[in-house]
């Protein structure tokens, strides 16, 4: 791949020039499944559901349903109650490209490990009073994709549809105030990796989220207001769709909620102060250069600008190259 002298200089200022990697191609399918997969929704009272036992989703099948497709990126183990999922929250697909409403955050590897791992209940239990995501759970994750990336409410912390607001990249994600990458819509591209018979994600109540067809590959059946339904065996599951609520539209299962987010869940600790939206900016490129070095390109007023950054142990070095060629460097140390 040929780069200009300007591009080489903006990379080499952080010692990144020699590590320039070939950019990945974009997935053209992205958020939109085939027209035959468009769901219909019903709004039945939660009490109108089939009789069921106290628990579903047997623990012995969880290891082989989705997460194993990302062995090496995602590690799992379990006890009698939970499947624990460890990852750095960084997916393999291109990041951030296409965002038009950007708060100047960038993706950084996270420490979803040990006591800070994700917890998926092995035996989820249906709640007598399900919790809608329309007016709840504006903070934190509500699901976890099988590639180890968390999924937040489709509505941002202002109650707006993050996808329609232009806040998401071409895979439905962006970085939060802790520079933590997460999705706000269903990662339907994972269907191509795991197949229709495996979930693409799990809600944090423990119920699986399948893609744009039923697990047997048949057309998507009618969904309830939580984007889920019961199968022929009385087992509940959610679906990802290309229309709101995109993912699980709330918690059909029992969860503990504290400060408007599901508790417990992993913590993300910012290593730098969060920034404000950069009006008029559109992210046009993102490259992982190797050795935890990255370069984000954006355009503003028709001019290119860059954020180059790298992680070295507990040190995070950022270089900001504005559209006029001015360079600002900042360094931060992660605590703990």
Summarize the topology:
Blueprint (H helix, E strand, L loop, with lengths): L4 H8 L62 E4 L3 E5 L31 E4 L4 E7 L8 E5 L4 E3 L20 E3 L5 E3 L7 H4 L6 E3 L4 E3 L17 E3 L5 E4 L10 E4 L3 E2 L2 E2 L18 E10 L2 E8 L2 E10 L2 E7 L5 E7 L3
Parallel strand pairs: 10-12
Antiparallel strand pairs: 1-2, 2-3, 4-13, 5-6, 5-9, 7-8, 9-10, 11-12, 14-15, 16-17, 17-18, 18-19, 19-20
Radius of gyration using CA atoms only: 20 Å
- Give unreliable regions as ranges: 1-61
Order of helices and strands: HEEEEEEEEHEEEEEEEEEEEE
Mean pLDDT: 84
Number of strands: 20
Shape: globular
Which strand order spans the largest sheet, edge to edge or round the barrel?
6-5-9-10-12-11
Tell me roughly what share of residues is in helical segments. Answer: under 10%
Account of the protein in words:
The chain is mostly beta strands. The protein folds into two domains: 5-28 and 278-333, no CATH class; 31-271, no CATH class. It is 4% helix and 29% strand. It has helices spanning 5-12, 191-194, and strands at 75-78, 82-86, 118-121, 126-132, 141-145, 150-152, 173-175, 181-183, 201-203, 208-210, 228-230, 236-239, 250-253, 257-258, 261-262, 281-290, 293-300, 303-312, 315-321, 327-333. The protein has a six-stranded mixed β-sheet, with no helix packed on it. The model is unreliable at 1-61 (pLDDT under 50).
